[in-house]
Amino acid sequence: MFVHSARPNLAVERVAAILEAEWGISGSLVDVGGDRDQNLVVTTAAGTSYLLKIGQPDETHGVLDMQLAALRHAAHQDPGLGIPPVIPKCNGEYLHALPADAGGRWLLRVFGYVAGKPIGTGPRPPALLREIGSTMARLDRALAGFFHPDAGHDLLWDIRQIPALRPCALDIVDGGQRDRILRILDEFTETVLPRLGGLRSQVIHADATFENILMAGDPPAITGVIDFGDVMHGPLVQELAVAMADTTSGLDMPWQAACEVAAGFDERLPLEGDEPALLWDLARARLALNVSVLASRAVHRAEGAGSMESDMIAYQDQFDAFDAVGRNRAFRELRRTLRLPEPLTVGESDKETETARLVERRDERLMPGLALFYPEAPFHAVRGEGMWLFDADGTPHLDCYNNVPHVGHCHPHVSNAVARQTRALNTNTRYVYDSVLEYADRLAERCPGELSSVMFVNSGSEANDLAWRMACAWTGQGGALVTAGAYHGITEAIAALSPYDAGREFHYPHVARIAPPGGAPALVPGGNDSEAGEYGADIDRAIAELAAAGYGPAATMIDSTLASDGILDAPAGWLSTLFARVRAAGGLCIADEVQAGFGRLGTEWGFEALGAIPDIVTLGKPAANGYPLGAVITTPTIMKAFAERTDFFSTFGGNPVACNAGLAVLDVLDRDGLRAAAAEVGGYLKERLSALGTRHEAIGEVRGRGLFLGVELVTDRGSREPAPEATAGVALAMRRAGVLVGIEGPHANVLKIRPPLVCERAHADLLVDALDRALGSG
After folding, report:
1. Is the pLDDT at 547 greater than 50, yes or no?
2. In this structure, are residues 665 and 631 in contact, taking their beta carbons and an 8 Å threshold?
3. Are 34 and 307 in contact (CB under 8 A)?
4. Sheet of 739-740: strands edge to edge?
């Protein structure tokens, strides 16, 4: 049990003599009271002021030495913080021991003054509240490397001492308030205290009250932090919790004000892990501790609660205000202020309610009809890690669909690269910086032939739009050849090259569709089964169709996965024949590598898997693991010619953060051998999926390469009649079993399997087993 010791009360004359003899300082002294220490302000004849502190007889030399060492360390690390300088004695020491009247000793130390006045309980605009948080984070950064063997001492005001200080609450006079405080202290001890041990810890100030933070000016700005008497080693988040609790009292909406303090702290020293979720509990516990200790002091210490006695009502009011907000609402408001990721909900019913609310808001605020995967059971994603997506109640789902997180959800190397570069610089690409050149070099090194000139944009759609413009400028022609079910993006020009959902209603005279190999030639005007097999003839037909409409081919644009055509296996020679005939007609060949690139098919590029080299390569989504980045890679000759014809630029395409993300993705691909892994795991997965076809008649064919596979589902294997309803049912059954796949193809009867490249054999087994059960249940 902590003892409520009396403050020292030395005569001013005696202190003045010691001050002059030991420090060489003389002047007028005024006793200004204090909580534990006797504090005296010394003003010299020249007008210089000092603060002399006299500790209680039971204070140890080691603890006070630690406090002074922490002050000196922080001031050295960050001289502009506004920390009181520690004034040495004439002999260079910082502490002076004086025998106490009743035994023991008093320890004296002297500090210089810091400009400003305490922030107090007056108006505190949001900017000042944020600066309070920022200042404490700045102080903690300055203290981060500090160590002292006495930093782990027991401290009265340490929230972690609540179990030992619980008896203090018994002295609260109001019975209802006493019972309430006891319940809160017990709840904190049981549910929160055990979680603190896993949080970041270091030496902290631990006493950011409205009396210990100084300000000056109009508008007010923080000028310094004083009173290092509570310095200790503890959870870093406790520093912020104390500031949130003790600098916002008296305001109309103290929790919202506390969130502003947290925002300032987070901007300078980002919160991690469980720290944000515990802030309300920690701040509330601090207030409950304050009320308990002050109530006990009023009973057991001769002079009562001393300088803090008048704060009792203010702390109770603050406590009531925090309690009125409640934990859930408090965290929602904090999350909005800090822009924290969406948290997990608790319980299945809560998840369903929240998901339904979000779907309703989507329908109200977003584009009507905006499609959802699994409309019967929308997936409410809140977190990703590697191969896994977690829904709102924390249930993991094996993600075998999303190709955007190319090297896995939230890969730490990529996430760190983005976060660090965001904190350093993100700017217009018309400035000079090295990452854009390093990334361009590394892309060029991975490309065959003369593909070595790079231009950056923000997405795959923009990359395809730019590639199309280049082709039109280079050739002077305006016609395009695309596969019947192609999808290449959302810009107006590229939407015209994306007939994936148009069927026979596709009418762009400058675009001719070719039958995808093994695809659905009935979608192509004039096409039939024999022409689909004789792909050279079909290409000639399409070129002639363009000529009849008055267009020569500017380019063909091909996604080598043939994904939106149904994930088809192109026969040997198909792509090289297409490229040769388009070039013979004066056009260029564009490889849309947004889905196929960066090793997904087991080769560096999808066009390599099909044995042809394009004139232009386009990249998008997976390049930066989801950070907006697209690229066009072409020959220096084509790039130069385009530059001579237009003044193209993309303000933020290839910005420093995007390039750092792209470089980090390449690091992971190369370091972890993910291209070879895609070939090996993809081959194993395809074998296992094909084996399912021997037991399930609904599987018409398994197609694809590497980690881009399609499982065609049919009603009859002989006729290959598509089974779109069964396909939707199987995908939903797998989703409910914890495995996510997509649906693709012109008849919506192909299960799209396109996991991140960190997919391993064990993940493949989980996928196949889930599909086996889903097909069996059908």
Report:
1. yes
2. no
3. yes
4. 381-385, 388-391, 396-399, 739-740
